[in-house]
């Protein structure tokens, strides 16, 4: 705002309106003495003109004047400047109550009867000056507020546009997934993603605490991670783990993402469900009248700071055709006009009574009918995934069962010499584990590495690992390893591996034997000889494995490891 | 590169990070990371936050590093170990010889 009635109250500009010259002079003199600037007018019309030209800070107005009286002048000036506060004090010889009250009714701020007392007039001027500054301060704050509001609105729209761009729901052409998204505010906190890849159908429903910008911040890395890992056919627990770690990193405490991640694995005919803070996922097979419910068994993503969280995952065989529903808590907590919540039972009733090819349209319609009559407090997202018995058609058709996997490997002389039997084996095992969604952390890397270095370095190459005790022992050892490996002839290694899965426990059985008929002494040396930089391999295997046996005169090693 | 090193600005603290598999195949890289600065960096940290697994030869390599940097007077910290690696270090009683975090 301009300099009207600034803090320097001693220098205001006044407009004195009176048809009597003496009265004007008395007021003018008094005000000038106080240091103010004074303009004068002889009637209402002149007052209006003068105000338009000079915008005085305050007006002292007579009532009865020729051409236009004080009431009309006051009304006009106030009406023309409705966004400003122009204090007007009537100074009048009239003393009847009706005329005085009219001074206030027509917009005047105060009045004083003639003959007036200087002290009283000065007091009234001061009082109105205070009111006027207050008005100006509020005006100024209002302007600032509307600027801030406009900026917030703009940022909110940006957040919404970012969020809607990254949370683009799955294409509706994908007939196996149907959904209803009904955001509460202009930007939603729910995201729904889905991807078909290599015989796997991945889907994820995420419900972020908050809406708008706060949800968008978390949604950006979440969608990136989901799609990039799903494209690489990673297990849902690794997807959950990556998202959890990223969200923990970027989101402030209190913001997190409740999520349900699903992998329909058509290569093995199972569906894997990870529920972290979302209401029960509901599965309905064929003509069943009861749901199988998959309750949340994990902490929502972004809360725990841990690299090795073991996520609980449901694994279910798809034996028949069926439907799976995942939805945000906005659905069950939605209210109708009577403030009655839909509730879990209400939703289940709607789903159970909706059958046939248009079942989901029917469910959506009934949900919208329910909430449209009431107030929507949260985002409403529900999605239906069709399950079909499409097992054994996928790319990894070799792994026909999720419960057992067997492989026999034969490494010939050239393989041992130029290849890397360890790498080949661990990659195959990891590939199986990934495709079977086994994600508990394990020591398979260490065990398989140990068993191969024992077989190659000691049984076949006959290197004495006590070399490592010398100065530069590791260098000498490495040289000997390289030299001896380059010279091998007619050697081979046979490995049999089987992995079984039962009640969330997996067991690896591994048997290894080789062309070597030498019985190497270290095999029996199980001790952890504390300070020596070697000879710990078999000891480690014995500690990690539930059983470790040697037969055929130590030429065949068998082990079992459970995790 | 599966082995990377970083020396603090005052030169007293060497951090070696091992990505992926920690076994005999990275022996040379591991040794090269510390061999030239053992005298000047009394404090050593082995960062295993990106290590997938380690085997017995890695344990041997850690012991060689410990011996060359002063044995019982060495100051070696192993950080970022996951639960499996922690188990393997524990089986061999390495938690008594190294500070494992």
Which structural traits does this protein have?
heterodimer; A: 563 residues; alpha+beta; five-stranded parallel sheet; five-stranded antiparallel sheet; 15 helices; 20 strands; disordered N terminus; B: 101 residues; alpha/beta; five-stranded mixed sheet; 30% strand; globular
Can you characterise this structure?
The complex is a heterodimer of chains A (563) and B (101). With 563 residues, chain A is an alpha+beta fold. Chain A is 38% helix and 23% strand. Chain A contains 15 helices and 20 strands. Chain A has helices at residues 21-33, 44-54, 70-80, 97-105, 118-166, 212-231, 236-250, 329-332, 343-352, 359-372, 413-418, 421-435, 444-460, 473-486, 537-544; strands at 13-17, 37-41, 58-61, 88-92, 110-113, 177-182, 190-197, 200-208, 257-265, 270-276, 281-285, 292-294, 314-317, 322-327, 380-387, 404-411, 493-502, 505-514, 547-551, 556-562. Chain A has a 5-stranded parallel beta sheet, sandwiched between helices. In chain A, strand 9 (257-265) and strand 10 form a beta hairpin. Helices cover 31% and strands 30% of the residues of chain B. Chain B is built from 3 helices and 7 strands; from the N terminus they run E-E-E-H-E-E-H-E-H-E. Chain B has helices at residues 27-35, 56-68, 83-91; strands at 3-7, 13-18, 20-22, 43-47, 51-54, 75-79, 99-100. A 5-stranded mixed beta sheet of chain B has the order 1-2-4-6-7, covered by helices on one side. Chain B is globular and about 35 Å long. The two termini of chain B are 24 Å apart. The A-B interface holds A 307-308, 441-446, 449-450, 453, 468, 473-474, 478, 481, 528, 530-534, 536-537, 539-540, 543-544 and B 21, 23-24, 27-28, 31, 49, 52-57, 59-61, 63-64, 67, 82-84, 87-88, 91-93.
